[in-house]
Design brief:
The complex is a heterodimer of chains A (107) and B (118). Chain A is mostly beta strands and 107 residues long. Chain A is built from no helices and ten strands. In chain A, 0% of the residues lie in helices and 49% in strands. The chains are: A mainly beta (107), B mainly beta (118).
Chain lengths: 107, 118
């Protein structure tokens, strides 16, 4: 199975900050990577698919990059509604494994 | 509007069984892969299983193989997860999600809680 490792596990940031979260796959997954946002008590929400494609309705301050084994989610200017936990997921081969999550909280 | 509504969760004793259901609406159900993802209390997301549009292909995470069975009824726009031989570590919120192969899960239900405890 492909293991997904996110870093950092948590980050404290202020409104307006640029936040970067990384995700590393244990083997190459081309660009088959998705990013999700989850708020407490809610279902996850798809932000980015195919490593860099923005899901419809997602603000443009979210962006994704990378291919192969190393990927990045960037929030260009953190907004109050962005405080949440973020997960990466590889969609290259079953089982579609998730990273352990990165919690973005208020500094 | 795409809607996914899970049901069937509850409290069950170790070794017991449950059948989770997911009712889909607002899209052509038979044209999409579907997925179950679970989340143990206070933990991260775990992909559990996915099923192809016509039900011909199914994939499971190793920890549930032989105990969980995924099925669908396209005539009823419904997805099912039969879970047997339940263990304490199966305690989680189970989410039904619409899947796009090699892309991700773009719509999710609100989840149904399964608690395994004596």
């Amino acid at each position: 199975d492909i293991q997904m490792t996110q870093s950092p596990s948590s980050v404290s940031a202020s409104v307006g900050d640029r936040v970067t979260i990384t995700c590393r796959a244990s083997q190459g997954i081309s660009s088959w990577l998705a990013w999700y946002q989850q708020k407490p008590g809610k279902a996850p929400k798809l932000l980015i698919y195919a490593a860099s494609s923005l899901q419809s309705g997602v603000p443009s301050r979210f962006s994704g990059s990378g291919s192969g084994t190393d990927f990045t989610l960037t929030i260009s200017s953190l907004q109050p509604e962005d405080f949440a936990t973020y997960y990466c997921q590889q969609a290259n081969s079953f089982p579609y494994t998730f990273g352990q999550g990165t919690k973005v909280d208020i500094k | 509007e795409v809607q996914l509504v899970e049901s069937g969760g509850g409290l069950v004793q170790p070794g017991g069984s449950l059948r989770l259901s997911c009712a889909a609406s607002g899209f052509t159900f038979s044209r999409y892969w579907m997925t179950w993802v679970r989340q143990a209390p206070g933990k991260g997301l775990e992909w559990v299983a996915s099923i192809q549009e016509d039900g011909s292909a199914k994939y499971y995470v190793d920890s549930v193989k032989g105990r969980f069975t995924l099925s669908r009824d396209n005539a009823k726009n419904s997805l099912y997860l039969q879970i047997n031989s339940l263990r304490a570590e199966d305690t989680a919120v189970y989410y039904c999600a619409r899947a796009m192969p090699a892309t991700g899960e773009d719509y999710w239900g609100q989840g149904t809680l399964v608690t395994v405890s004596s």
